[in-house]
Design goal:
With 114 residues, the chain is mainly β. Helix content is 0%, strand content 50%. Strands 2, 4, 5, 6, 9, 10 and 11 form a 7-stranded mixed sheet that branches. It has a 4-stranded antiparallel sheet with strand order 1-3-8-7, with no helix packed on it. It is globular.
């Protein structure tokens, strides 16, 4: 069964950091490009970052460039999103996604508030 499970969300103060994790199962993780997306209340879903299958090529939304870092560990079927200098507007449910086949995780809530 193909599955993606996110974790690591929570409540953090503005300026703080969080690292999200996504564990993949049921497929050969290293063969697939992956993305992180987020959905905030009242806003369209937004792609935050993408990473190629071997991790060399990454792309970021302008809104997170310089603050977020996407990475992956193909040996352990894991993908990460390191988020620094978090802002209230980063508050959203964050999802990992396998591009090919459009496979999504269940999401993890990130709330940035003082």
């Amino acid at each position: 069964q193909v599955q993606l499970v996110e974790s690591g969300g929570g409540l953090v103060q503005p300026g703080g950091s969080l690292t999200l994790s996504c564990v993949a199962s049921g497929f050969n993780f290293g063969d697939y490009a992956m993305t992180w997306h987020r959905k905030a209340p009242g806003k369209e879903r937004e792609m935050v970052a993408s990473i190629g299958s071997v991790g060399w090529d990454t792309v970021y939304a302008d809104s997170v460039k310089g603050r977020f870092t996407i990475s992956r560990d193909n040996d352990n079927n894991m993908m990460y999103l390191q988020m620094n200098n978090l802002k209230p507007e980063d508050t959203a449910v964050y999802y990992c996604r396998r591009i090919r086949g459009d496979i999504w995780g269940q999401g993890t809530q990130v709330t940035v508030s003082s």
